[in-house]
Each structure stands twice: as C-alpha cells, then as structure tokens.
Specification:
This protein has 2 domains: about 1-125 and about 145-150, Tetracycline Repressor, domain 2; about 155-285, Four Helix Bundle (Hemerythrin (Met), subunit A) (Up-down Bundle). By secondary structure, the chain is an all-alpha fold. About 80% of the residues lie in helices and about 0% in strands. It has 14 helices and no strands.
C-alpha cells in the first residue's frame, strides 16, 4: 500500500481525475447529453495517462530543487520511489495516453500529441523560464474542456471557451503561489520565477487578482445568456458560490501569510475549490 500511495503522489492522479471530469463537462455541453461510452473511456484514459507521465517526469527533473525546498510531500524526495521508476512511468504512460487519444478521433489525437510534446519540453527545459511555465500549466488546466468538446462534436460551443478561460485564470494564480513557495530553490537553480522579478508580496497580490477575475467570470453564465444551461440556473449558482468563497479565502490567505505552510494550505484549498467548480458546471449542464 505504501508503494501504491507513493505512485499516486508522484503522478498526482487526483489531477487526472479532475482533468477527466473537465473532459466530461466539455463533452456534456458540446454534445448536449452524455457522450458515447467508448469515446469517453478513451478520453478519460488519455487524461489520466498523459497527466501521470507529465508529473512523473516533472518530479524527476525537479528532484534537486524539491530537496532544497524540503518538499517532503514528494515521494522522490522522501526516497519512497527511485528516480528511474519515475522515468519508467513516463515512458509507459505517454505512448499509452496518445494511443487512447487516437482511439477517440484524429483531432483529439492531434491535441494530445501537441500537449505531450509541450509537456515534455516543459519538464526538461521550459520550466527554467517559470513565467512561461505558469501560463503553460494553466493552459493544461483549460484545454481538457476543449478536448472533451472535440471528442463529441466538430463545433465547439462558446461556453466551452468561457469555462476554459476561468480554469486558465485559476491555474495561473495557483502557479504563481507555487512559485512563491519554491522561491528559495528557484534562486539556487537560477531560475527566474515570477516572484524573483516582482517580489513575494507583489506576486501573491497578482495571484489574488487572477483568482478574483476567475470568480467574477464564474458568475457571468448565470447573469448573462451565454448558454441556456446556466442562465438563471440557481442550482448552478449555489454550487459555484461555494467555489467562489473558497477561492477568495485562499487568495486572501496567500496575501496575508507568506510562509510555506500557509501557502501550501492555500494551494490545497484552491484545488478543492476548482474541483467543486467543475461539479458546478456539470450540475448546470444537467439541471
């Protein structure tokens, strides 16, 4: 059980589940109903496998930085998993994920190939330019909605891009917060992260603004006729308000308390908030 838990922590499978949920939401909205079971199964496997490989490779190349930052939440730092095991996980999951995407359709396969190539480049080299990396990670959080829509329909509804933008903004905020946490290690590695340019306090304030923008945008589908499924849908509003309160709280916590413990807590709360936000959009699509 200990080894399985370490593999889960290495590959961050909870992120894969969230991505799969985002794909389902994209499919539901674009297809106006449940997607074909085989299409969604392969789309789900694409998300899970590519995400697992990306995080495994990320932790392999980040090992020294994580040690410097005393990231004991990382199994490679604790010694629970050997670095070569992380490489094997990457080598197995990436091709399997691309094969799963091919089984959906060629458009999804093309999106998956682009994501896999960019993800690998990011893990190996681009993460040294952390400002670019912040936006890359946020893009990875947003693209599953488009991927899910493409899996079931050649036409992508405008609400899909709207939802993707909310996910993108929240993702940028989370990555800036992570950079503040990793500031010491990034300085040792000579990686120019966002907080190194503007300072820790300013960086958290900027993250706060990204969160608030995402919160404001989450209310627009209810207030404006962006899509019939969400317009004046009070069930959607009730669920999304839970997300909004959590995001405002976590954003404020990041600004007030800059120590690693509270920043890490802030990121965990924001991840839970994003998960509830995905549920809100799913509820809106059904009810």
């Amino acid at each position: 059980m200990g080894k399985l838990r370490a593999i889960w922590e290495l590959t961050r499978l909870e992120h894969g589940v969230m991505i799969a949920l985002a794909i389902l939401i994209g499919s539901l909205i674009a297809g106006r109903g449940l997607p074909p079971a085989d299409n969604y199964l392969f789309a789900f496997l694409t998300a899970l496998l590519l995400e697992a490989g990306t995080f495994a490779l990320n932790d392999y190349f980040d090992l020294e930085v994580d040690r410097c930052n005393r990231r004991l939440d990382r199994p490679l730092v604790r010694g629970d998993i050997e670095p070569r095991t992380a490489l094997w996980i990457y080598a197995l999951t990436m091709p399997a994920g691309l094969l799963a995407a091919y089984m959906v359709n060629l458009t999804c396969f093309s999106i998956a190939v682009i994501n896999a190539v960019v993800a690998t480049l990011y893990d190996v080299k681009l993460k040294e330019i952390k400002v670019v990396g912040n936006f890359y990670i946020a893009f990875i959080m947003a693209i599953p909605f488009v991927f899910g829509a493409t899996a079931v329909s050649p036409r992508i509804p405008s609400i899909i891009y709207f939802i993707a933008l909310i996910a993108f903004l929240s993702g940028v905020a989370r990555e800036i917060t992570k950079d503040v946490m990793d500031l010491e290690g990034d300085a040792v590695r000579k990686t120019r992260s966002f907080p190194l340019y503007v300072g820790k306090r300013t960086a958290t304030v900027i993250a706060f603004c990204f969160y608030l923008t995402a919160v404001a945008l989450s209310l627009v589908p209810f207030a404006l006729h962006v899509d019939d499924a969400y317009y004046r849908d009070y069930v959607y509003l009730a669920v999304v308000l839970v997300t909004d309160v959590m995001l405002v709280y976590t954003a404020a916590l990041s600004v007030i308390r800059l120590d690693t413990e509270h920043l890490n807590r802030s990121r965990k709360i924001s991840l839970a908030a994003i998960f509830i936000g995905l549920l809100a959009f799913m509820v809106g699509a059904f009810i």
